[in-house]
Every structure is written in structure tokens, then in C-alpha cells.
Design brief:
Elements: H1 4-15, H2 21-50, H3 52-77, H4 89-97, H5 100-129, H6 135-163, H7 166-187, H8 193-207, H9 211-221, H10 227-256, H11 258-278
Helix pairs in contact: 1-9, 1-10, 2-3, 2-6, 2-9, 4-10, 5-6, 5-10, 5-11, 6-7, 6-8, 7-8, 7-9, 7-11, 10-11
Length: about 290
């Protein structure tokens, strides 16, 4: 969700037809998960064999290679040069609030992002403390969630493309992540191992699978000459969710337990889903 996301959204919006954006943007988002999987497999082995410093060196070398590759490709895809946009806070807010549908996307992205980062960072602790899982079992459950996220990024994009209903798909995703977080937070310990793993996979399918459809919807609604700016403005709200989630989870964990924290995240995700419902429909004209 860094600077590459608005840039890639602006580029892909020019290269891909509107009907295929949801799927293509979702394919683009799988690079995040594939990179995380590759890093999880390769970097520990590099650290053991050569030392931790070589992990950073390997990542830096790959980044330099990517810079060279993108610079080589840039002339073929460079758009028309325009003056740099005004990026102060007021201009960002204007981009988001000008269209109620975009504003509701930004609002929903805050709890969705909070849910995603909490799944990726706190789920193993939830498993060992609240679900009765051993550390290895909790890691396996998180692996199921990550696999679900990878499938979700492709699957939800395909469904949104086939149905031509990206906002409806986002609503289903929001309801799904709220259900999974509430179930695991309130009663996850009573589930069998197979059901815990199945719910974890569904949790990942929703909480980690929404990004591509979400960004494609921003690109669909944004002014076509300001897709990059609008994406960046909406992702500013998403970052607020990422920043707030650790503090919220930590406070609620100390007061009522980690299960209660995930239930609270479920309630927030449900509020975000209601915002999407209120923010318009797929066939609403701009």
C-alpha cells in the first residue's frame, strides 16, 4: 500500500478495459502475497547460511534489479507529462469527498485494513491464547489464512469481473471477514481443529482478499485523469486503519482479552460494510 499502488493503478487503468479492471487489479495484488511467501521461504535460509545482513542485501539487490527493469520498460508505458498535482491535506480530502461512493470506500478501507493487519500480525497469538492451538498449529492456521488470501485476491477479482458488481463483492467480503473475526473471537476455542483451520482460510479469503477489487473500484469511480491521485488519497484513509489497529488491539487485549479485540474488529468491519451499502450501487451513474 505504498507509492507503487497509486502509480500502478494509474498505469493499469490506461492499459486495461473497465470490464476487466477488477480481475487485473486483483492479479496485480497477488504480487504482494507471492513476494511475502517467497521472502518467508528464502530469507530465513539466507540468514542461517550467511547472516541476517545478507537478507537486507538480497532485498536491496532485487530492488535495484526491479528499478533497472522498470526504467527499461518506462518509455513504452510513460503517459503524457503533466504538472505535479497538489498533494496537501485539503486537496486529498476534496478528492475523497467529491463523490460519496469514493468517500464510503475510504471509510470502509479503515476497518478493512485494520482487520487485515491484525490477521497477519496477531492471529498466531490469538491461536495460542484463545483457540487452544500449539505454536505449530497456530502457524499452520495462519498459513491457511495466507493461502485463502492468495486465492481470494484472484477469485474475488474474477467474480467481480464476471458479475460486473465490484461493490457487491466488497460487501460480501466485508460481511465474511466480520463473521470470521466474531466467530473466532467469541467462540473459536470450542471449534474442532478442522473447523478452526477452515474458518482461518475463510478469514484470509476475505480479510486479505479485498485489495484488488477495492483499488479497481477506486479507479472506476475516480476522474480518469486523476486515478493515481485519488487512489493515493483513499489509501491515506487505509493507512489510518493500519496505524490505529495495533493500538486498538493492544488496549482491548489488556482490558478484555484478544478474543474481545477481534470481536471489536468484526463490529468495525461490519460498520465499514454498512458504509459501502449506503455509499451507492454498482450501476449508479457517476
Amino acid at each position: 500500500m505504498g507509492p507503487e499502488t497509486p502509480a500502478s493503478a494509474a498505469l493499469l487503468a490506461r492499459l486495461v478495459t473497465a470490464e476487466r479492471r477488477a480481475f487485473v487489479f486483483s492479479v496485480r495484488q497477488t504480487g504482494n502475497q507471492i513476494g511475502a511467501v517467497c521472502g518467508s521461504l528464502a530469507l530465513p535460509a539466507i540468514a542461517i547460511a550467511f547472516g541476517p545482513a545478507w537478507c537486507y542485501a538480497a532485498v536491496a539487490a532485487l530492488a535495484l534489479f526491479a528499478i533497472a527493469l522498470f526504467e527499461w520498460l518506462r518509455p513504452a508505458y510513460a503517459g503524457k507529462l503533466v504538472p505535479p498535482p497538489k498533494l496537501d491535506l485539503r486537496a486529498r480530502l476534496a478528492l475523497v469527498t467529491a463523490d460519496r461512493r469514493i468517500a464510503m470506500l475510504a471509510l470502509a478501507s479503515m476497518p478493512f485494513s485494520a482487520m487485515q493487519v491484525s490477521l497477519n500480525t496477531v492471529f498466531v497469538t490469538l491461536g495460542t491464547r484463545e483457540l487452544g492451538l500449539g505454536h505449530i498449529e497456530a502457524g499452520m492456521a495462519l498459513a491457511c489464512a495466507q493461502a485463502g488470501g492468495l486465492v481470494g485476491r484472484l477469485g474475488w477479482g474474477y467474480v467481480a469481473m464476471r458479475l460486473d458488481a465490484p461493490r457487491a463483492v466488497l460487501i460480501v467480503i466485508g460481511l465474511g471477514m466480520a463473521f470470521c473475526a466474531a466467530l473466532l473471537g467469541l467462540d473459536g476455542g470450542s471449534l474442532s481443529r478442522n473447523w478452526q483451520f477452515a474458518v482461518a482460510a475463510l478469514f484470509g479469503l476475505t480479510a486479505s482478499g479485498w485489495n484488488g477489487v477495492f483499488i479497481a473500484e477506486i479507479a472506476r469511480l475516480a476522474p480518469q485523469d486523476r486515478i493515481g491521485e485519488t487512489t493515493g488519497a483513499v489509501l491515506t484513509a487505509s493507512y489510518a486503519g493500519l496505524l490505529a489497529a495495533p493500538a486498538v488491539v493492544s488496549i482491548l487485549d489488556g482490558v478484555a482479552g484478544l478474543g474481545a479485540a477481534f470481536f471489536a474488529l468484526a463490529c468495525l468491519a461490519l460498520c465499514g460494510t454498512l458504509a459501502l451499502m449506503w455509499g451507492g450501487h454498482d450501476k449508479t451513474d457517476a
